[in-house]
Specification:
Distance between the termini: 7 Å
Number of domains: 1
Number of helices: 3
Radius of gyration: 16 Å
Shape: elongated
Largest sheet: none
Strand content: under 5%
Order of helices and strands: HHH
Length: 97
Amino acid sequence: MLLLTISQILNVLISVLLMLIIIQFIIGLLFAFNVINHSNQFVAQVYQSIDTLLRPILDPIRRIMPQTGAIDFSPLVLIIGLQILGIVVDNLAYASV
């Protein structure tokens, strides 16, 4: 029962991380295509805050992955890794019940 609770808490944390990654990606695209100007203080601060939260997680992935030019695949690798982690923890929790 305890593993099931831990699994559910971990799934909530994974969902929050996934949302942050998607929000950072969308804001980055809006900046890149000049839909939103960098002088917009609110959006720039939101982007900077999310980047500060995700940088410690994404930097080790960036160091391992080969350079691909302008495209950064580390968020995609993190999303896949988080999904795999969620599946493994869920299976372990349900197997113990």
